[in-house]
Specification:
By secondary structure, the protein is of the alpha+beta class. It is 59% helix and 15% strand. It has a domain of 39 residues: YefM-like fold (3-Layer(aba) Sandwich), CATH 3.40.1620. The protein is built from four helices and three strands, in the order E-H-H-E-E-H-H. Strands 1-2-3 form a three-stranded mixed β-sheet. A hairpin with a 2-residue loop joins strand 2 and strand 3.
Length: 93
């Protein structure tokens, strides 16, 4: 994900309310998240839809890797050779 520009990408809620369309266009153009603050504290993040989808895909991949590592640690893994034999058996069947 593109890093936040502290000058452009952190805006108070009042500024966001008065220029919603402009900030949405900014996020779509820069592909950087917009941090919205309320009373000086971070309150929400506005993301470009494409970047959000990419984040979800990356999170799903990381979760799959974590699950696979747990399965291997618990003895549920399959060696490369066994997996290859299973695939080849499925192809020739």
């Amino acid at each position: 994900m593109t890093h936040v520009s502290f000058v452009q990408d952190i805006q108070p809620l009042s500024a966001f309310r008065s220029n919603v369309t402009g900030f949405i266009k900014q996020v779509q153009t820069t592909h950087r998240p917009l941090v919205i603050t309320n009373h000086g504290r971070s309150a929400a993040v506005l993301l470009d839809v494409i970047k959000y989808d990419e984040m979800l895909e990356q999170l799903e991949l990381l979760q799959d890797i974590h699950t696979a590592e747990q399965q291997i640690e618990s003895g549920k893994g399959v060696t490369h050779e066994d997996a290859l034999m299973q695939v080849l058996a499925g192809i020739t069947a």
